[in-house]
Inverse folding.
């Protein structure tokens, strides 16, 4: 179920697919991509359910970025929108 | 001469006979599996001088120097004391406390297992008990140090609490919850305690900090063992605050000492009388310790 937050219509600046990766490369790729971006830009990550779903959002928060949205897109895959934080 | 060996010291265990005439192995312990570089160098030196030039790592975060001549027991002991290396034990005693790295190192760790291992080691290590008693601590429900395989095991847990006023209804917590304990209803997560694993992913993932820690502590498992008749420890108590963990261990040991027959292991006692009855005796003992009367009635 999705909320009514204003981020709903955010268009990502960069898109990344990590559905073929496993731990630890799922978050490593996400982190590397975020490092190439500027604060305030939005990264869209396509990830799989299970371990990546449980761990990538918390790691993103731990590193000081903001998770805007997480939604299932079917086939055990999820779309995660991340706003890059400032260093 | 064999007589030169200090019998009182030998009784504490940790010097075990091995294959080969008069060959023994010296068992050492660590606190939560940590050993300083200085201790490692000292250990390597001892392995060269008394052993066979290598150190065997045990399954319980200990180390063994093999091939030590029985007659050199007092010498190697003196060297260990001088170098600050901790002796291990064996037999019907409380063994090395095993612990995962916990919250000071691990990103998933919820509690400070290293500090707790040191505290439990000070309180219990080497104590004589009816049957061998192993203790283990894990910093979170991932249970990497396998506390449920120990006679007494503690597992770090946190209980989440939701603040609806901070929640934006994004539903991220419900998606990342590994226990399927959260369901979004009318834009707010509804919490099902019976499914919660108490591992905190909702707290660590919520972008609005709407989930906070309500309680933090240790769940306590008893009666786990492997050996010839393996069985996992059963849940005895929940959310024990860190400052009461040692007391919970004392209460378990008193209950065990009262209930066991013929030096049974903890697991055999728990399985024969059932966890509920064991818990009643544990609660009695806990009350005695809380009341400040510390005398323990032996069986
Ligand atoms: S993740 Fe946080 S903000 Fe989003 S629904 Fe859950 S509690 Fe609310
Ligand atoms: S603590 Fe873990 S299992 Fe419990 S509700 Fe939160 S995410 Fe789900």
């Amino acid at each position: 179920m999705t909320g009514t937050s204003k981020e709903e219509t955010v268009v990502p600046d960069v898109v990344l697919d990590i559905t073929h990766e496993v731990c630890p490369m799922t978050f490593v790729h996400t982190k590397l991509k975020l490092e190439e971006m500027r604060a305030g830009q939005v990264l869209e990550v396509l990830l799989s359910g299970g371990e990546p779903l449980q761990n990538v959002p918390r790691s993103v928060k731990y590193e000081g970025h903001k998770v805007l949205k997480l939604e299932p897109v079917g086939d055990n895959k999820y779309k995660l929108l991340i706003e890059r934080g400032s260093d | 001469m064999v007589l030169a060996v200090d019998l009182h010291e030998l009784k504490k265990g940790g010097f075990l006979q091995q294959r080969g005439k008069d060959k023994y192995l010296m068992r050492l312990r660590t606190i939560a599996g940590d050993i300083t570089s200085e201790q490692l160098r000292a250990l390597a030196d001892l392995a060269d001088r008394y052993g066979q030039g290598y150190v065997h790592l045990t399954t319980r975060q200990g180390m063994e120097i093999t091939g030590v001549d029985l007659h050199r027991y007092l010498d190697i002991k003196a060297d260990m004391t001088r170098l600050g290396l901790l002796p291990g034990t064996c037999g019907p005693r409380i063994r090395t406390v095993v612990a995962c790295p916990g919250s000071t190192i691990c990103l998933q760790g919820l509690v400070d297992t290293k500090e707790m291992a040191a505290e439990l080691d000070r309180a219990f290590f080497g104590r004589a008990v009816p049957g061998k008693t192993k203790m283990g601590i894990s910093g979170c429900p991932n249970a990497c140090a396998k506390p449920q395989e120990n006679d007494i095991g503690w597992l770090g847990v946190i209980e989440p609490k939701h603040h609806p006023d901070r929640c934006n209804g994004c539903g991220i917590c419900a998606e990342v919850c590994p226990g399927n304990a959260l369901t979004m209803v009318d834009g707010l997560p509804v919490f099902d305690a019976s499914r919660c694993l108490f591992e905190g992913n909702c707290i660590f993932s919520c972008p609005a900090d709407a989930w906070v820690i309500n309680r933090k502590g240790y769940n306590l498992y008893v009666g786990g063992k492997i050996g010839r008749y393996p069985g996992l420890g059963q849940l005895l108590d929940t959310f024990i605050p860190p400052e009461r963990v040692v007391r919970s261990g004392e209460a378990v040991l008193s209950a065990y000492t009262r209930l066991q027959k013929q030096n049974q292991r903890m697991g055999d006692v728990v399985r024969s009388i059932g966890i509920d009855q064991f818990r009643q005796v544990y609660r009695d003992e806990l009350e005695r310790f809380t009341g400040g009367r510390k005398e323990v009635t032996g069986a």
Notes: The pocket of iron/sulfur cluster (ligand 1) is lined by residues B 162, 167-173, 189, 206, 208, 210-211 (CB under 6 Å). Residues 26 and 65 of chain B are 5 Å apart (CA to CA).
